[in-house]
Amino acid sequence: MLLYALILALFCVYFYLNKSSNRNDLCKFPEPPGHPLLGHISTITSTTSIIYNLSRYIENYGNTLKLNIGPSVFPLSKSLVTIDYKFVKFVLSHNKILKKSQNYQFFRRWLGNGLLISDGDYWRRHRKILTLAFHTEILKDFVGVFESVGDVLIGKLGKYDGKSSVDVHRLVTLCALDTICETAMGTKMNVQSGENSQYVESVQQMGRIVIERTLSLIKVSKYTFWLTRDYYIQKNALKILHGFTLSVIDSKRNKPVEKTTKRMAFLDLLLKVSHDENILTIGELQEEVDTFMFEGHDTTAAGISFILYCLADHPEEQEKVLQEQKELFGDDKNPPVTYSDLQDMKYLECVIKETFRLYPPVPIIGRYTTEEIKFDDSLIPKNTNIIFFIYGLHRSSEFFPQPEKFKPERFQNFNSAFPYAYIPFSAGPRNCIGQRFAMLETKSIISKIVRHFEIKPTLPRHELKLSVETVLKSVNGIKVTLKKRN
Which residues form the signal peptide (predicted)? Predict the structure, then answer.
């Protein structure tokens, strides 16, 4: 305890001296009251308090405000939080504001310099290479995998027929991981059968730790992080995560690369570039695999789970999804679904988009200014974090009348004049490279579940407890009731 007290005292002195030198930065923007030393982490104390407090700040102080998430050495100590459309569009479309906000550095031990974190020419070069892995012809080849992996999920869900509730997020996450392994990585890992499920748990642990390090006096610094239990949890999680991705790479690397005129999927493309063109080192290759394994399953699993929750709460909309399926396939629960069929699921696409509006899988993203920038009549200083509160932006009545209401029809005639009002996959040069992959997978899984099950709310109704853990989660699960259709 004495050691903790001494460290805290030293931090306090250092933080105060540094804070005093920055107190005039961003002074034009409104700032909610905060602790004189700790800033706003006196109220934003956990992953479950982020959504509530940011929503409250925006409501009371305007669409762009200044926050100090801790003393000056904290990664988000000098930040603007915004849902202002003009500002969002200005920054996300800007070709010189591409660096991620400072809190992303907590991903380094896990994802290295992968596409999520890298910037500059390195990022541009890797982005150009990886874009080739998401060509339409490749996505068409993945539809069969979406369907076969989804069939395993249907079997797992069938065990809960008539039960009081099932936490769909847990099962969908395993399905999404199997999908990403078999499609982008070209390797069957059979996670849904109980193999390699430690990977999923480790991803969840790392997601929590990354956010909590942003908010903790002790965890924020590598010099004191080792004093906490999370340091050892992270150490063990990283061993599992890196071991899993290495096993995926090794399963492909030791096989000769086939000479083919076909377009290649993600890992095959990386291996070819690394082997033939000597552009990627093996270390860089693993960092990109780690990044896409994480981003390619965790966000999709969250999105699918929230869609099931919304359909359970809205039986009329669920019936419309079912009728669309019957128009395409009749009463066949297991039709041979094609890429064209998935494209024709227009109402289901509206349901997906509306759910992603209310529950964006990535509710917060950030950028970092490496030079002073001018926006309207304001100068944004160098070294400022700009935090886009997507969850709040998507619930703005300026763009979405009755924003708290679930209305998929709003996306049948969505006003494309304001493309930056709806950004579940980010926007601009750093938008999500795998968004079309995610939409196809989501359509495949949701349509399959709706054909097989009626989805109902639990009794009593399960209330979500939202948490920001790199992706949007519910700390008490996402629970529904399932009933097999005749």
Answer: 1-20
Residues 6+ apart with CB under 8 A from 82: 63, 64, 65, 88, 386, 387, 388, 389
pLDDT above 70 covers a percentage of the chain that reads 93
Dist. CA 76–CA 78, nearest whole Å = 5
Tell me how far apart the alpha carbons of residues 39 and 71 are, in angstroms, rounded to a whole number.
7
Residue ranges per structural domain of the chain: 2-484
3-class SS of residue 262: coil
pLDDT tens figures, 354-408: 999 999 999 999 999 999 999 988 899 999 999 999 999 999 999 999 999 999 9
The fold for domain 2-484 equals Cytochrome p450 (1.10.630)
pLDDT digit string (tens) for 158-193?
Answer: 999 989 999 999 999 999 999 999 999 988 888 998
**Residue 104 to residues 304, 314, 324, 377, Cα–Cα distance (Å):** 25, 36, 41, 29
Start-to-end Cα distance in the chain: 63
Binding residues for heme: 432
What residues have CB less than 8 Å from 390, skipping those under 6 apart? 360, 362, 363, 364, 365, 423, 424
Identify the CA nearest to 318 among candidates 198, 449, 143, 183.
449
**Across residues 33-61, what is the average pLDDT?**
93
Q: Which tokens is 175 given? A: 């399905």
Task: Show binding-site residues.
Answer: 432
